[in-house]
Amino acid sequence: MLNTQARQQLQKVLPLDLIATKSWLVEQGFNLHFLDNAVRSRTLIPLAAGVYARQEARLSWQGIVTSLQLMSETPVHVGGLTALELEGLGHYLSKGSKPQVQLYSDLVLPKWLNRIEIQAQFEWHGTRRLWPETLMQNNEYLRQETWQESLPPLRYSCPEKAILEILANVPATISFEHANQLMQGLHNLSPRKLDELLKACFSIKAKRLFLWLAVKHQHAWFKHLTPEHYSLGTGKRLIAKDGRLEPLWQITVPKEM
Fold first, then answer.
1. Which residues span the domain enclosing 237?
2. Rounded-to-integer distance, Cα 148 and Cα 17, Å
3. Closest to 176 (Cα-Cα) out of 254, 249, 101, 117
4. What 3-state class would DSSP assign to 36?
5. Residue 95 confidence (pLDDT)
6. pTM of the predicted model over 0.90
7. CA-CA distances (angstroms) from residue 80 to 57, 157, 204?
8. Domains in the chain, number
9. Which residues lie below 8 Å from residue 196, measured CB to CB, with a gap of 6+?
10. Which end of the chain has the least Cβ crowding within 10 Å, N or C?
11. HSE-CB for 253 with a 13 A CA cutoff
12. Boundary of a domain, candidates 54, 75, 91
């Protein structure tokens, strides 16, 4: 039999549509005997080794990521293309049957994340070469989505941060054409946030690509930026193989662009 008090506490600690690991539940004060009994009585349903949801939980990628954000000591956020899609700026939906959810963190994501049966695939992007640790902990560059009333919100990159995260992956996981289309729709970015993020960002490639596309699309906010204050490195950067050299920002881009 489950202790009534502990059972009530479990409902508070683990709301219905969130998930939790055994180790995290132990940290919250539940003993292993109680957790084993909760699994036997199907109060807790195993989703992967050492990962549980409450019975009748409705699994969603938002609930899984929100749970990860609550349990993780290292900041983790939804970023890149997924963040732009949450803002309605994704241009077109991800191809394939399972949506790709882009997650950004300094540490590698737990292996159980992609072992849970759900209609989504999680992709990890390391942030050590992209953002300083202080920026990863700064909520000013994150937005919150209330994906379900009464549950904690999902944290994801603001568009200014998301586009730089996207450009850091051109052309490996996103094409020049797609990045160009995304950039075309970003009319309402905050010059102040862009200025701060361009000063903080470690990726020279992302910054040069961003500035090239900003000039290309003649966005009004560009005139408020200060490229001379951004660390843009020296020398040419080969980004597009067999491309042409863009003289201002010293990057190779596709000839057709």
1. 61-253
2. 9
3. 254
4. helix
5. 58
6. yes
7. 28, 7, 17
8. 2
9. none
10. N
11. 22
12. 54
DSSP state of 153: P
Strand partners, 142: 157
35 & 65 share domain: no
**Closest alpha carbon to 90 in 163, 172, 171, 194:** 163
Residue 97 and residue 20 share a domain: no
Q: CA separation (Å) from 77 to 55, 140, 235, 252?
A: 27, 13, 33, 31
pLDDT at position 94 is: 55
**Beta strand ranges found along the chain (DSSP E):** 19-21, 44-48, 51-54, 76-78, 100-105, 121-126, 142-145, 154-157, 244-246, 251-253
Tokens at 44, concatenated: 């807790």
Tokens representing 210 are: 């961003």
Helix (H) or strand (E) holding 238: none
**Same domain for 232 and 201:** yes
Shared domain check, 76 and 23: no
Chain-centroid distance, C-alpha 178: 18
- Give yes or no for residue 239 having a pLDDT over 60: yes
* Structure-block tokens of residue 104: 């950004």
Provide the percentage of residues in the chain whose pLDDT is more than 70. Answer: 96
Together in a domain, 11 and 125: no
Element (H, E) at 25: helix 22-27
Q: Are residues 65 and 50 in the same domain?
A: no
* pLDDT tens per residue across span 183-214: 999 999 999 999 999 999 999 999 999 999 99
What are the pLDDT digits (tens) for 86-107? Answer: 999 986 655 566 889 999 999 9
Distances (CA, A) of 217 to 76, 239, 247: 31, 20, 17
Q: Which residues contact 189 (CB under 8 A, 6 or more apart)?
A: 159, 160, 163, 219, 221
Q: Do 19 and 140 fall into the same domain?
A: no
pLDDT value, residue 246: 93
Q: Which one of 39, 54, 69 terminates a domain?
A: 54
Same domain for 158 and 40? no
